[in-house]
Amino acid sequence: MATYWGLKHLVDLLFLWELRLRLPTLRPMRADGFIIVDATPEGQRIDTFGTAAVAALKKLQNYDPRRFARVQREVKFVYGCYLNRASKIRLSRSGCMAIYRRIGKIIMMDRDVLNLSANPEVVLKAYGCALVHEATHGLLYSRHIPYTYRTRDRIETLCLLEEARFANMICEFRNQI
Fold it and tell me: Higher pLDDT residue, 39 or 169?
């Protein structure tokens, strides 16, 4: 098991190293201390990911300052890419919307799952929920709670509860207006 986690951290370090090398060519956006990067291939890139991520962060900041502070503390990069497409290295399980990588404090968000052209308001809320969910993973990691086979279900339940609390807060705030 130790070898698996050592290899996983090595892969994360290599990914972070590649990201830092490619960062100037990816035209990153900066907002509230976050670096937002759209890593889709140049021909497929639409500038909506960066603006959507910034809008989701603003929505999170307006609706829930406490969870926004958690996201600020636990996330440095928001990285838009295609997680679930067939590739040599599979980055996620099928249908995964986002992944948190502790090394580098990176959230990788899937461009295929969240389509802005469908319903922008719903997608912005989903981005905010994904940010809260993944930042909760970061919080648990900073409290030295390991993500193992034995703890995975409890950790995911907790992260989903935080995500649901944020989603409920958005609905309650909207009903008060």
Answer: 169
